[in-house]
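Moderator note: this is an archived Q&A kept for reference. The question asked for a predicted structure of one protein chain; the sequence and the answer are reproduced below.
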Amino acid sequence: MKNLAFLSIILLFISCSSIQVYSDFDSEVDFSVYKTYAFFKPQIDEVDISDLDKRRILKAIDKELSSKGLSKSETPDLLIGFTTRAKEQIYISNMNSFGWGWGWGFNPWFWGPNNNTVSTRTEGTLYINVIDGVNKQLIWQGKGRGGIQENLKNRDERIALFVQEIIKNYPPESE
């Protein structure tokens, strides 16, 4: 019963785990001149995820960029693409049960049985690429890494959170 409660806590922690976010950009670029965007279809078509997840990501990117004052255009200043990577993580936790003993000396009940728990989780990484629409060079890249589960009920919310956390760093602050 103790193991079931511990496993439930671990699964709750994993499903709510934080997203690590990083970004990099070309320091020579003036990001204030960019006002419009379009999705970079050739890059998005290469991503090996379901079409449903692609649409979730595109919808979330669209929402975040719109909230930053950018608008979609047929002749965009920016091209937006993304790529993904997934890696299966295996976690082994060794839980020892401690018993109570009587004073000093040998006590066969002091160390309880070894209880090893093995769990797996998929750690996903989403890269959002911002490409200059004229010279077709990457000018900003955001990366978000965190746990995601195949059977996640609120998959739309989790993907939207990934995108929101990544795009929070766009445009980069000028120095």
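Archived answer notes: Residues 2-167 form a domain with the Double Stranded RNA Binding Domain fold (CATH 3.30.160.670).
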